[in-house]
Structure formats: structure tokens, C-alpha cells
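Quick one:
INPUT:
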């Protein structure tokens, strides 16, 4: 059953909580980071596509910059965990990937492309208190923000 899109959460709103399986074999719950780390929730459409591969490899290349800024990057797609594990391994990614295979989290953030059945590319920067401090939803899945832009937003936290 496809969950209908909610509105994109506003800056200053509490981030919708979720628990998703990861490529590490563990479930990841957003609220587990509360009080400990800021989080970048980064929705991406599909593993192994050109823009997604570039974006996820960029996150991996700048892993230390995100880590030093105190931000945990949580990339999410509708791909299955086995597909995401293969994607992560093929490109030697440092960041674990989360599977929204049941398509419940993307609609909660208002970013599910219902006609295509995958999430649009979108970014939500969530502070340690669980509040959204910056968000950007791409006009089309082929667009993406640069890590430099994202790191500038992180510096404002």
C-alpha cells in the first residue's frame, strides 16, 4: 500500500521520526541521534543511476568533513537492502544506506514521486534537538546539491 504524500515538513518543524533497515544489517531510528548528533537525511531516487552514484560517492569522499562537523549522513532510497549493499560495496562507500522499501518515510517527508514509485532527491538538515533547520527538494530527481553547499548550511547550525 502506497502511503500518500504529506506536505514537505517546514523549517523549524520537528523531523518525522522513522526506523529503517540499513546496509550495516541494523535498523536505524532517527530519534536515536537526538541530543547526540545533527543529521542530514538525504533522499535519493535509485541506486546505480548516474546522479545518485555521483552524489553517494561524493558523500563518501567528504565523509570526514561531515563527520568533523558533527553531522551523520543518512542516505535513503526505496531500493531493497540487498541492492543497497551491492551499491555500497561496488563504490566502496563509507556511509551506510537506508532502505525505505515499504515507501513509508519518503511520503512522510513529502518527497515520494507517486507516478514513478521512488523518492525525489531531497535534503533535510536536522539539528540535535530533532528540528529541521534546512531543507531542499530538487525540482527533478536529476538535480543535486553540492557537498560545499550542504556543508555551508551545516556551518550555520
Amino acid at each position: 500500500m502506497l502511503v500518500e504524500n504529506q506536505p514537505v515538513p517546514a523549517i523549524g518543524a520537528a523531523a518525522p521520526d522513522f526506523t529503517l533497515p540499513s546496509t550495516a544489517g541494523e535498523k536505524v531510528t532517527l530519534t536515536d541521534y537526538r541530543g547526540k548528533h545533527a543529521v542530514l537525511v538525504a533522499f535519493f531516487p535509485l541506486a546505480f543511476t548516474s546522479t545518485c552514484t555521483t552524489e553517494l560517492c561524493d558523500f563518501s569522499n567528504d565523509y570526514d568533513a561531515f563527520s568533523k562537523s558533527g553531522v551523520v549522513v543518512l542516505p535513503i532510497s526505496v531500493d531493497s537492502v540487498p541492492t543497497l549493499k551491492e551499491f555500497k560495496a561496488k563504490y566502496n562507500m563509507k556511509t551506510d544506506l537506508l532502505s525505505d522499501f515499504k515507501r513509508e518515510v519518503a511520503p512522510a517527508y513529502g518527497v515520494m514521486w507517486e507516478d514513478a514509485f521512488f523518492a525525489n532527491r531531497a535534503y533535510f538538515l536536522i539539528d540535535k534537538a530533532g528540528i529541521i533547520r534546512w531543507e531542499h527538494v530538487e525540482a527533478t530527481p536529476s538535480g543535486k546539491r553540492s557537498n560545499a553547499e550542504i556543508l555551508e548550511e551545516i556551518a550555520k547550525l
